[in-house]
Design a protein that fits this description.
One of its GO terms (cellular component) is cytoplasm. Keywords: Acyltransferase, Cytoplasm, Hydrolase, Iron, Metal-binding, Protease, Transferase, tRNA processing. The protein is an alpha/beta fold. It contains 11 helices and 11 strands. The strands form 2 sheets. A 6-stranded mixed sheet has the order 3-2-1-4-5-11, sandwiched between helices. A 5-stranded mixed sheet has the order 8-7-6-9-10, sandwiched between helices. The longest helix has 27 residues, at about 240-265. The two termini are about 20 Å apart. The structure holds adenosine-5'-triphosphate (ATP), magnesium ion and fe (iii) ion (FE). Adenosine-5'-triphosphate binds next to helix 4, helix 5 and helix 6. Magnesium ion binds next to loops.
């Protein structure tokens, strides 16, 4: 079966075409349009701008995905769309478009969870996910440790950030340093020229009394702000690459340490790192090193599949379809606060 996936939860309009196979979903073609540049001067996503951009980009992006896959609408057997979590207006555009296509082509529609999509992205590259698996989901809005027993229906949160998400910390620190939005890719690049041991920034929630599987990044962001302020008061020039490398080391040190600890303590042998921050070079390298040392198998999708896209939504749809999931009803609507445990929305 061929699935069309539609993603509009934030500032990427993503459309992907995927074939459901025994070896997992196969990516046939995809297209992504981003309104990122329109938000850059505001330092973060402006919901109204994102909704309008989705509206304008939807039809051309669907056409581009079909062209790249060499397919036509009549080849589509089912549609999967992001039903949440995300921005209300942005989700609405995707769900409305998906309903219209499903009605016009007379195919079933599945409203699915964006976060399950980030995890499912890995199956496009590495095949079916062995379960149980432990997923570290690190994105612009989320930082969670998830126990995945079934990608199509059973995902349990075992830890989460108590304040900022990891990607949000990257974006805020980039702003403090006067760098462009989104901050993750810029800091990732600049950190390559810096010394990760130059400044010892705090590792949040790593004390003996702290919750083992939860995260905190707002103290780290404040520490970076203080460091910059102090340097300015002292008349010192801030070494931007050193700050980037040291900040990044603090983030990925905590992320990888807690993930490996959770996998070992819960007896889970497979670790997946997913979400936009999983594109980070240092996170990928340190996760690989620490998982190997602990005897864990690590799976990370290629960077292009880590950030928001429609193929990952089609990949969840593929898992749901293979598990015999019931299509969503005509009342399907976007849910900005959809919990990660709800993979398929009725
Ligand atoms: P969510 O998935 O939680 O709803 P989102 O969809 O906005 O949020 P993603 O698109 O998954 O988030 O990821 C975007 C985030 O990833 C941004 O915060 C961005 O700075 C960060 N990011 C992207 N590339 C990198 C990188 N190479 N290093 C670190 N962070 C990165
Ligand atoms: Mg985005
Ligand atoms: Fe996302």
């Amino acid at each position: 079966a061929v699935l069309l996936g539609i993603e509009t939860s934030c500032d990427e309009t993503g459309v992907g075409l995927v074939r459901v196979g025994a070896d997992g979903p196969e990516l046939l073609g995809q297209a992504v349009a981003s309104s990122q540049d329109e938000h850059a001067r505001f330092g973060g996503v402006v919901p109204e701008i994102a909704s309008r951009a989705h509206l304008e980009a939807m039809v051309p992006t669907v056409r581009a995905a079909f062209a790249r896959a060499g397919l036509e609408p009549r080849d589509v057997d089912a549609i999967a769309v992001t039903a949440g979590p995300g921005l209300a207006g942005a989700l609405l555009v995707g769900v409305a478009a998906a309903k219209a296509y499903a009605a016009a082509w007379d195919v079933p529609l599945f409203g699915v969870n964006h976060l399950a999509g980030h995890v499912a992205a890995d199956t496009l590259e590495h095949g079916p996910l062995p379960t149980p698996a432990l997923a570290l989901l690190v994105s612009g809005g989320h930082t969670q440790l998830l126990r995945v027993d079934d990608l199509a229906g059973s995902i349990t949160e075992i830890g989460t950030t108590i304040d900022d998400a990891a990607g949000e910390a990257y974006d805020k620190v980039a702003r403090l340093l006067g760098l462009s939005y989104p901050g993750g890719p810029v800091i990732d690049r600049l950190a390559g020229d810096g010394d990760p041991a130059a400044i010892r920034f705090p590792r949040g929630l790593t004390g003996p009394q702290d919750p083992a599987y939860d995260f905190s990044f707002s103290g780290l962001k404040t520490a970076v702000a203080r460091y910059i302020e102090q340097a300015e008061r002292d008349g010192r020039v801030v070494d931007v690459p050193d700050v980037c490398a040291s900040f990044q080391e603090a983030v990925v040190d905590v992320l990888t340490a807690k993930t490996v600890r959770a996998a070992v303590e819960l007896g889970i042998g497979t670790v997946v790192v997913a979400g936009g921050v999983a594109a980070n070079g240092r996170l990928r390298a340190l996760a690989q090193q620490r998982c190997a040392a602990a005897g864990l198998t690590l799976r990370v999708p290629r960077p292009g599949l880590c950030t928001d896209n429609g193929a990952m939504i089609a990949a969840v749809g593929a898992a749901v379809l293979a598990a015999g999931g019931v299509p969503s009803g005509p009342a399907l609507t976007g849910n900005p606060g959809l919990p990660v445990a709800t993979v398929l929305v009725p």
